[in-house]
Amino acid sequence: MTHPPQMNDIIRIHDLRFRPYLTPERLAKRVTGMGQEIRRDYADRQPYFLVMLKGAFIFAADLLRAVDLPIELGFVRVSSYSGTSTTRKVNVLVPPDPEEIRGRDVILVEDIVDSGNTLYHFLPELEKASPASLTVATLLYKPDAVEHDVPMEYIGFEIPDKFVVGYGLDYDGQGRQLAGIYQVAEE
Ligand code: 5GP
Ligand code: MG
User: Fold this and answer.
1) Which of 146, 82, 142, 72 is nearest to 109 (CA)?
2) For the segment 54-90, what is each residue's pLDDT rounded down to a tens digit?
3) Which residues, in sequence order, are bridge partners of residue 79?
4) DSSP code per residue over 20-65
5) What is residue 73's three-state secondary structure?
């Protein structure tokens, strides 16, 4: 039997090695704090959380449970990324339900803003569905990698421009279930 990786272990996924970067405890503390910020800002409203699949699903599950408001939930899937380098194109693979979004206070939940390409192209698409308001909550943000001006109201952690996995984020399909976030040890 193999044991689940301990947070102090270097791990290997495909051809790359990753070192521990954000522990489950640090993630939990920050995500709870973000939930409380949202709770405060949306105190008299019922925000609609639109979760970007697949990478944001674990972050969203923890974030929503830290927001003590009558929230609603939807999912969307866009792809703009393969391997470890960003491509320019954004495909909407699972579109949002426009009837659910119209007139709502929408909070888009994203795992990571890297170049900003995905949200730069996707946010205007969402605006076409006429939400009452639209804000972004991202767990991770790489300020050194960003190429597009993307509005982000809630940012969990600003991180260096190095590839990370875990807590929902993958490397070519693997690593999403890791409880912590790991940073590439070599490229
Ligand atoms: P952007 O369009 O901002 O360049 O990248 C957005 C998407 O690229 C993210 O939602 C994520 O799917 C992917 N991405 C960017 N950086 C990383 C990273 O360090 N690790 C992983 N696993 N995905 C990333
Ligand atoms: Mg993503």
Assistant:
1) 72
2) 999 999 999 999 999 999 999 999 987 544 445 566 8
3) 91
4) EEE-HHHHHHHHHHHHHHHHHHTTTS--EEEEEETTTHHHHHHHHH
5) strand
Q: Are 110 and 122 in contact (CB under 8 A)?
A: no
Structure tokens at 57: 């699903």
Cβ–Cβ < 8 Å for 185, 15 = no
**Ligand 1 site-directed mutation target among 81, 120, 181, most atoms within 8 Å of CB:** 81
Residue nearest to atom 23 of ligand 1 (CA): 169
Task: With CA atoms as reference, report the closest residue to 141 among 179, 166, 115.
Answer: 115
- In angstroms, the CA 119 to CA 140 distance is 13
37: Cβ contacts below 8 Å, ≥ 6 apart: 154
pTM above 0.85, yes or no: yes
Q: Which of 114, 144, 149, 172 is catalytic?
A: 114
